[in-house]
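pinned: reference chain
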Amino acid sequence: MKQITNNTNSIYDDADFLELVLKHVIKDNNILNLAKQYKMCPEDLGGIEIYQGFLKIALDLEDVPVSMDLFLIKIKEAYSFGTLRREQEKQILDLLCWVYNDQPLDSQYITQHFHDMLKHRRGAAILRNCGENIDKLEACLGRLSFDMDKSQTDNSDDSVIYPFLTPVFKTIRETFSTGFLEIDAVADGLGLGELGMIIGYSGTGKTAVAVHAAMANALNGVKVLYISLEEPSPNIANRLYANYFSINYSDLHHVKNGAAAELQSKMSDLSPGEINTLMNVRIAPLKNKAPVTFSFLRNYLENIYQTEGYHPDIIYIDQLNYVVPTKESDASWENYEKLTFEAALFSNYMIGGKHKFAVWLLHQAGGKMRRQFSNAEITGFKGLIRTPTLVMGIGKDTPQDTTVHLFSLKNRHSKTFGLDYLADLSYMRFAPMDKGGEARMNKEKELLEGKKPRRNGYKNIPEQLNLRSAAGKEILPAPGGAFV
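pinned: its structure tokens
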């Protein structure tokens, strides 16, 4: 396979690079689908007739790869249509032999460059065609940017819909739990291709809410990816251990009171079924990978998909302040607005051209800590909550308060909510603010502090729940648990 090492825009004009793209479009169905998604056309490859002819054949095919013999038949048909010329037959056959040689494909490399390659080549064509007409140039480049962003996230049919001619039905919305059953009953969770935000003051428990929700989803068979841009990965792992094993987070973090030995003991006691289920949650070690953009995160997802076949169902990003927009502005609120727009585009991205996911994005509230706050009290509030489907605030009266208030700043598909929970941030746990919840919390704390024997370790598994295994394997019965 031809090796392209230059990582600047100049490679997008290089014949070797263009032939490499062409080879993948012809032989890799994911890249062919990507070409169709971006509405790639023969003109995108410039004025070389052979490239254009090969691309047209690939785009006319439903699926690839096809056999070399069938592609040769299509080439002969192209001679009769005039899209390829017989006098170029030697060059055509040379390219065909190279396309069908045994060298391995590199789909990840092409996927990473595909968007930028098309944008560069289409932009260059606009510059050539517009000459010195600045108004026309500005309009064409603006349209190009819009079309490229839309193609990146939209595979839908753009045809006109007449709703009273034929009924338009929405497919059932697959959703993932917020981690709080009472909120799920109102908000119905977050669906594939949707963006949610968790907003709270420093110290109110944003990360604890995310960890609590991540574990609830993982235990129900949902593939969870936790991207921590603020804290190192061991801190997030310790929060997950605190939630599942009932080991005090501070003890784990500071390695005291025998927490390390207790963790090792509990890890060794895990059954194969539990390990299989707990493999649903993963941590992405991206702290200090600056600058982190949503383009970087898309490439990261494509990389792990191409190398491991892994694609998450739901992603938690902790937190927004550590992501930078593609193009920064002088005004910070404009950057926040751009980031949430880019986050919405990111949540609509399809890994490998076919796998959707949901995104929860954590963000910090500004000003004095309070139980409930408004849009105006959110850092960079202008336009910040315009794009998400669900925005959940978390507040409390004082840093020492054990009661947190979870409420909706925005809930696009259902009514607003506001609920109080007892929070035990030492174990990343939350209980409804009712007599039953308070009793369970107090009993759990009494047993933990008294170091009395705990049935099955009082792991954070709901009663009567069946653990849903990773990778669609056998569903296993869950061990009993006392705290949800």
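why pinned: The chain has two domains: 9-153, 175-477. The first strand starts at residue 175 and ends at 176.
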